[in-house]
Amino acid sequence: MLELHPAPASLPEGRRVYAIGDIHGCLDRLRALHDAIAADLAARPTASALLVHLGDLVDRGPDSAQVVAHLATAPPPAGVTETLTLRGNHEAMMLAALDAPDRDHAALVWMQNGGADTLLSWGVSRRTEPRDWAAALPADDLAFLRALPLRHQDGGYLFVHAGIRPGVPLARQDPHDLIWIREPFLSSKLDHGAVVVHGHTPTPEPVLRANRIGIDTGAVMGGALTCLVLEADRLGFLLA
After folding, report:
1. Do 199 and 161 contact (CB within 8 A), yes or no?
2. Which of 101, 153, 161, 218 is a Cys-bridge partner for 88, taking CB atoms 3.0 to 4.6 Å apart?
3. Confidence class of residue 168 from pLDDT cuts 50, 70 and 90?
4. Domain boundaries, the chain
5. In CATH, what number does 5-239 get?
6. 44 exposed, middle or buried (CB, 10 Å; 0-12, 13-18, 19+)?
7. Could you tell me how far CA 149 lies from the centroid of its own chain?
């Protein structure tokens, strides 16, 4: 049985949220977490269950293409009533490399951050010219990546990939900060108006603060892939 502890915010009665941190092409761990979510819902049914993936689906791990296809087309875990996948900075780098007029610079940045292995997961050779990358990728996969939102608010929580700019109202946050920020967000003790659930900054264990919960636990670097479970005024963790 999932062990639950006091949480820094709350969700409405009958609402549960499962939030998964940075996947980075780790398909086997993603599937294992989805199975764990289905098992938790079978053991503890709820009226409304949202599954959120916090972005960074691609790069560095072996199965980026397969992760994207799984999230875009596979049915959700049994018992999940809604799914949502957010955009991370690695999806932003990938799309910039495919689309930006300054293609050489954008391509270099992506290659330095795992882009070559990501292309290879789609069967695109390392010898392929950057101008040909977009045409070599499945149109449905690209449409899925382009449509990813940047944020989701639910009860007392705000879900984003990286964090927010402290002191700026939530409605006026810069999209760049939502997928890239570290400091001054990570060290801020301000009340942001919602508890921010985020990934982006890897840590050995989940980070629980009064104003944020970080769940990038470095799955692609030998750590776990973490799923935060939120319900009422409680929280727990599933790991794979």
Report:
1. yes
2. 161
3. very high
4. 5-239
5. 3.60.21.10
6. middle
7. 11
